[in-house]
Design brief:
It is built from no helices and eleven strands. It is mainly beta. A hairpin with a 6-residue loop joins strand 5 and strand 6. Strands 2, 4, 5, 6, 9, 10 and 11 form a seven-stranded mixed beta sheet that branches. A four-stranded antiparallel beta sheet has the order 1-3-8-7, with no helix packed on it.
Length: 123
């Protein structure tokens, strides 16, 4: 059984940086394409970033491109999202997700989800 556990969320100020992590257990991480999604209050869950199983390809939403970086350490079974130049509109619960197939921009592409970690950016 695959389990995903996010960590690293918190309260930061606008312009700060933060790293959130997602640890996968139960399977080998390299088997899966991984992604981060987020859900802000009153909004739909939205795609943030994705990374291929090997880590060779990454994909970003336009809203975070140039500020966020997704990476993975398959030896540690962990995926990271480094967030720089944070803005109040980045405030959301951040979820990591794993796909048995290739990455996608829709939540429907993903088979496993973590419980989420709250990121709050104050102005």
């Amino acid at each position: 059984q695959v389990q995903l556990v996010e960590s690293g969320g918190g309260l930061v100020q606008a312009g700060d940086s933060l790293r959130v992590s997602c640890a996968l257990s139960g399977r080998t991480l390299s088997t899966y394409a991984m992604a981060w999604f987020r859900r802000a209050p009153g909004k739909e869950r939205e795609f943030v970033a994705a990374i291929s199983g090997s880590g060779g390809n990454t994909y970003y939403a336009d809203s975070v491109k140039g500020r966020f970086t997704i990476s993975r350490d398959n030896a540690k079974n962990t995926v990271y999202l480094d967030m720089n130049s944070l803005k109040p509109e980045d405030t959301a619960v951040y979820y990591c997700a794993a796909a048995r197939g290739s990455y996608g921009y829709s939540p429907w592409n993903y088979d496993y989800w973590g419980q989420g970690t709250q990121v709050t950016v104050s102005s």
